[in-house]
Amino acid sequence: MVIRDDCLNALKKMEGESIDMVYLDPPFFTQKEQHLKDSDGREYTFSDRWESRESYLRFMRLRLEEIKRVLKKNGSIFLHCDDSASHYLRLIMDEVFGENHFRSEIIWTYKRWSNSRKGLIPGHQTIFYYTKTANFKFNTIYNAYSPTTNIDQILQERVRDTYGKASYKYDDEGNVVLAREKKGVPMSDVWEIPFLNPKAKERTGYPTQKPVELLERIIRISTDPGDCVLDPFCGSGTTLVAAKLLGRNYVGIDSNPSAVRLCGQRLECPAKTESRLLKVGIDSYKTKTEEELALLNTLGCDVVQRNKGIDGILKTYYRNAPVAVKIQKKHESLQEAADLLCRAGNKKRCSFLVLVRTSRSAGDQEAAVPANMIVMDSPELLLENELSNQCSLYGVKSAQML
Ligand SMILES: C[S@@+](CC[C@H](N)C(=O)[O-])C[C@H]1O[C@@H](n2cnc3c(N)ncnc32)[C@H](O)[C@@H]1O
């Protein structure tokens, strides 16, 4: 169900203790007009401008009190905010739900392109997780062990001495004591989930839309199938989509008619973008060998992954333009490598191109390279060349003796 209303009115009409979990992503007190267009040119806006911080906090407190009333005794609330007002909101949450019912401060972190702002780039938002009582529903999610975990950490029982120092447990005969079967590492409160990219299937064009993946995690840890999830500031309906995909019931509220319309459309065909980054991990984006990385580092390059023609860009621009670097691959002739670099470098309007030759072959003499391309031998090739010159100068025998 999706309701179009101020959530305070809608919440007041709801039955007490009827909801298992509430997620809210309200205006953050950015003092901005939030505005975005979708791919068909439809505009979505909502206001995050306030007379004062006090008026914003009053608005939030009233709604949080109503949310507490509709939550079941074993229910949970997740309040999404950012550093515009998170420090004030946490105090209000303590007052409304009780300090002792604070469970976690979840950090949603993501990579951001650098901007020109002076200072640190904002790379996270905060989700305050509270429960209505101490008797709350929680489903642990387990993650895979990190690559630094060794087999003993997975299999062996550990004990703590009187100083709290942990060590592996052995029985009286000195044999290792096996731990109970483990399911992995319980999920932490820092969640790295990519922001929706402009081409993501689930992207609607609604400002501040959150990823379904983020809501799925929240719903999974705090509810079971058939439970009821409420989002009183549902926007484009991300929470409702995640709830539907996971077999939970849902109630969404938003005062913006275009948001409610959008929710209806999204719920007809709920979609989630599979994040390649989450599925296969960051390592699958790395296409360079250790040797290539060392070489690019020596040349002073920023490494470029997943590009056929360019492996690195020099940190220093020449003639106000980037300089592209490519390392010849084992299977490439010098001409093939030069063509790939030329094509990619021209596209990126590079002033110079640097091709690092890694092997010598008979056809190299005929290779045609443009005037702005510098072909240099890799250190291994230079050394090999120097040694074979020495061998021919002094004869193989003396070279071997040296
Ligand atoms: C940050 S957005 C929510 C975005 C949403 N989580 C998503 O993924 O699309 C906040 C929403 O709160 C709505 N809103 C603002 N004041 C409201 C109020 N008093 N009652 C209900 N909705 C309100 C806005 O229209 C906006 O859609």
Automatic annotation (TrEMBL):
EC number from the UniProt entry: 2.1.1.-
From the UniProt record, give one GO term of the biological process aspect.
DNA restriction-modification system
Alphabetical list of SUPFAM superfamilies matching this protein: S-adenosyl-L-methionine-dependent methyltransferases
Q: Which GO terms describe its molecular function?
A: DNA binding; N-methyltransferase activity
Q: Which InterPro entries match?
A: DNA_methylase_N4/N6, DNA_methylase_N6_adenine_CS, RM_Methyltransferase, SAM-dependent_MTases_sf
Q: Name one GO cellular component term.
A: cytoplasm
Q: Which residues form the DNA methylase N-4/N-6 domain?
A: 19-262
Which keywords annotate this record? Answer: Methyltransferase, Restriction system, Transferase
Family indicated by similarity: Belongs to the N(4)/N(6)-methyltransferase family.
What name goes with this protein?
Methyltransferase
Q: Which organism is it from?
A: Enterocloster lavalensis
